[in-house]
Each structure stands twice: as structure tokens, then as C-alpha cells.
């Protein structure tokens, strides 16, 4: 525990927010959970008033505009949430001395690397979503106790995601064509929640320097490789999954071809990077499958 110091979680109704709250509850921490209805991050006065009222020791910002394709035609709206919102939180946290843990994304990179992106690698977003998230990063990194945690390919039980979609499609299609030319690190939201908790504790103890960290699983695969593993865990034939290219699924926002992130900076904070993606998926899968089947039995 952190001596009854409060952890405030924004975006508390989302998949990651739910897992962060569960991890904090497990640790016996005092929490304030705020979903979008409870706090409009685009309202600077509301954000300032909320932080001043609750005086949290740590703010975990899980709130974001995550509709990647919609951001291409609604960038100003996305920027208000992904850029202005974190800026308002950063100003309020700087005024009260709170630690701010802000969740960001691999989309801030160009996605054309061939080796894992280091935490200090040059950013070059190719989409509106990436540009708006980079704006948020810069605001958070402008304060003394600002932490940016980039993640990617996130899945879990508490919301729609790729793993849940593939579970559903396995029961509907004889074969499935899945992109095999985009590489990344499938990351369980519960694992990331645990990492955020440890990073927050390190920030409070003064052992984890402020700055950028990468919160993704170890190892790497493609969407095709991930889907084959999902089929294996379902007990069905992975060969029902067929590889294809990104050209088969053209979308408004370009997808990074390479989203693998490096984890070297955790050593400076005395933290261990997340485990291999296969081990995490194996543990997460039974509950995700149960929830997906219950919510969408078809």
C-alpha cells in the first residue's frame, strides 16, 4: 500500500481502466474512478477542480480517443481528447505535485523500423490518431512528474479487441484471412495494469525516473501469428487461418508495419519488462473466452 494515498483513474470504464482499478483494489489502495461521464478531460476547469478536490498521489490516465480510423476525418475532435485532455491533467498534476501516468501508443512512430523502437527513438506519426497521441505525450513530458507509457495491440476481457473478435469469427467462418505483414506485441491489459501499478509505486518512492516507458509484452508476432495461437487455444485447426497482406484490408488510417517496442528503460526503474506474449495469452484466454461466449453466444 502507499500509506492511504489516493490513486485517481480516468477512463475507468474502459478495458485498461477496469484492470487498473482491479489491480489497485487487490493491493488495497484508495482509488477514485472516473469515467467519461464523470470527468470531461477537455474541460480544463473541471480537470483542475477534480484534482484539487481529491488531491491524488497518482493519476493514471486511461482515457483516450481510440477510434483510429475516425480520427482521420475528425482530427480536431480527437486532439481535444488525446492532446488537450492530457495537457489539462498535466497542468493540474504539476500544481498539486501528483504523479501522472499517461497511456500512449506505438502509433507515434512511423512503423517502418526493423528493430524494436527504443523509448527515445524519433517519433514520426503517419496518422491523425498518432499525431494527437504525440501531442498528449509532449504535454505530459513537460512536467516534472510526468510518465508516458506506450502500449500496443492491447486485449483483455473488458471491451472489444482483436482477440475477442477472432474468438467470435472462429465460430462463424470456415477459414479466416488475417494480415501477416504487420508485426507487433500482443499485450494483455491486466499485465499492463500491473506494470502501471509498479511504475506508480516507483515514482512515489523516487526510484523510477520520469519519462517514457514501453508497456508491451515481450516477443513479437503478426496478426496472422496471433490468430493461429488463438485458434490453437480454442482447440481448433490453426491452418484454418490464412495469411494475407495489408492491401486486402485498406482502411482510412495507415497501420504501422512494425510496432515492436523496446523495453530497455525499465532497468533504470528497477522494473522487469512484461512476460512473453504467448504466456500472457495462455493465462488470459480462458476468462476472455468465457466472457466473449457469454456476451455473444452466436
Question: Can you describe what's shown?
Answer:
This protein is of the alpha/beta class and 298 residues long. The protein has a domain at 6-159 and 185-219 and 259-274: 3-Layer(aba) Sandwich (Rossmann fold). The protein has ten helices and twelve strands. Strands 2-1-3-4-5-10 form a six-stranded parallel sheet, sandwiched between helices. A two-stranded parallel ribbon has the order 6-9. Strands 7-12 form a two-stranded parallel ribbon. Helix 5 links the parallel strand 4 (99-105) and strand 5. Helix 2 (44-54) packs parallel to helix 4 (75-96), helix 4 (75-96) runs parallel beside helix 5 (128-141) and helix 6 (162-170) crosses helix 10. The N and C termini lie far apart (43 Å).
Q: What is the compact description of this entry?
A:
The chain has helices spanning 15-26, 44-54, 70-73, 75-96, 128-141, 162-170, 189-205, 223-234, 266-269, 277-295; strands spanning 6-10, 30-34, 58-61, 99-105, 146-151, 154-155, 176-179, 183-184, 187-188, 211-214, 221-222, 241-244.
Return residue spans where pLDDT drops below 50 for at least 5 consecutive residues. Answer: none
N/C terminus separation: 43 Å
Helix/strand-derived category reads alpha/beta
Number of strands: 12
Organism: Streptomyces aquilus
Pfam family, one: RmlD_sub_bind
InterPro entries: dTDP_dehydrorham_reduct (IPR005913), NAD(P)-bd_dom_sf (IPR036291), RmlD-like-bd (IPR029903)
GO biological process, one term: dTDP-rhamnose biosynthetic process
Amino acid at each position: 500500500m502507499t500509506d492511504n494515498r489516493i490513486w485517481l483513474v480516468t477512463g475507468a470504464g474502459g478495458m485498461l481502466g477496469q484492470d487498473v482499478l482491479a489491480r489497485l483494489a487487490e493491493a488495497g489502495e484508495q482509488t477514485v474512478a472516473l469515467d467519461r461521464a464523470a470527468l470531461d478531460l477537455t474541460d480544463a476547469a473541471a480537470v483542475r477542480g477534480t484534482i484539487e478536490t481529491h488531491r491524488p498521489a497518482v493519476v493514471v490516465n486511461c482515457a483516450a480517443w481510440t477510434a483510429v480510423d475516425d480520427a482521420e476525418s475528425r482530427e480536431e475532435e480527437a486532439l481535444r481528447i488525446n492532446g488537450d485532455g492530457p495537457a489539462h491533467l498535466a497542468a493540474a498534476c504539476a500544481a498539486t505535485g501528483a504523479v501522472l501516468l499517461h497511456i500512449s501508443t506505438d502509433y507515434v512512430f512511423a512503423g517502418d523500423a526493423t528493430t524494436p523502437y527504443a523509448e527515445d527513438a524519433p517519433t514520426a506519426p503517419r496518422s491523425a490518431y498518432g499525431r494527437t497521441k504525440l501531442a498528449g505525450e509532449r504535454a505530459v513530458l513537460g512536467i516534472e512528474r510526468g510518465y508516458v507509457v506506450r502500449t500496443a495491440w492491447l486485449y483483455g476481457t473488458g471491451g472489444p479487441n482483436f482477440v475477442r473478435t477472432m474468438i467470435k469469427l472462429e465460430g462463424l467462418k470456415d477459414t479466416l484471412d488475417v494480415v501477416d505483414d504487420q508485426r507487433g506485441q500482443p499485450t494483455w491489459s491486466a499485465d499492463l495494469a500491473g506494470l502501471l501499478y509498479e511504475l506508480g509505486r516507483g515514482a512515489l518512492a523516487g526510484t523510477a525516473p520520469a519519462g517514457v516507458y514501453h508497456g508491451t509484452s515481450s516477443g513479437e508476432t503478426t496478426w496472422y501469428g496471433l490468430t493461429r495461437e488463438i485458434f490453437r487455444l480454442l482447440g481448433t485447426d490453426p491452418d484454418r487461418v490464412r495469411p494475407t497482406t495489408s492491401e486486402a484490408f485498406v482502411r482510412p488510417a495507415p497501420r504501422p508495419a512494425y510496432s515492436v517496442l523496446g523495453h530497455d528503460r525499465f532497468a533504470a526503474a528497477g522494473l522487469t519488462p512484461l512476460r512473453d506474449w504467448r504466456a500472457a495469452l495462455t493465462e488470459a484466454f480462458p476468462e476472455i473466452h468465457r466472457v466473449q461466449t457469454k456476451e455473444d453466444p452466436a
